[in-house]
Amino acid sequence: MAKKIALVGNGPSRKLYEEPFDGDVCLCNIPQIDVQYDYISIVDKKAMDYIHNEQLTFDKPILTLPETEKQTRMWNLQTEIQPVFEEKLMNSAATAAYYFAQSYDTIYLYGCDSLWSDDCSSSQDEYIPRAPRSKTLHLQWRTHWKKVWNTGKQFVIVHPKDIIPEDYGENVLWYTRSTK
Questions:
Q1: Torsion angle of C-alpha atoms 79, 83, 88, 89, degrees rounded to 10
Q2: pLDDT tens column, 156-165
Q3: 4 DSSP β-pair partners
Q4: Is the sign of the CA dihedral 156, 32, 95, 144 positive or negative?
Q5: What is the reported pTM?
Q6: Percent composition of the chain: helix, strand, coil (DSSP 3-state, to 5)
Q7: Where are the beta strands (DSSP E) in the chain?
Q8: What is the pLDDT of residues 29-38, one digit of tens each?
Q9: 3-class secondary-structure state, position 142
């Protein structure tokens, strides 16, 4: 049986994710949607700072980079931190997708709007302020996604209707889901 995981990013289309999902689920950064999940992917220290400052706890592990885990060790967070990512691919979604390609057959991507548009907005922005983004950030992110696609695993990009899919290779499928 094929092993599946849903990776829910922070772009506007994350609202397309629906339960139940027949597999594992990983949310990116600070969970803000009320769904069952198995992992949290965080690669930015600012998100970890927010968890520390707001004294947030989660009952699922945070997957991160070794250097991020090391920076937060002194805080004694009440959440399991697993330093499993070998490298940062610019954002939490791409980094997690690359990691999960080692052990999952199919990876569903929600809320990764920069894969088909120039929209790099994030639901995290209201909690974790960021410097203004480059108008070409989506192109920079897509460059890092190439490493993910090259794993050869099956990826399903879930998107709203009326978008023009990019050609990322035969192992990257596009699935339209309408909002309710």
A1: -80
A2: 999 999 999 9
A3: 106
A4: positive
A5: 0.95
A6: 30, 20, 50
A7: 4-8, 24-28, 39-41, 62-63, 81-82, 106-110, 154-159, 172-176
A8: 999 899 999 9
A9: helix
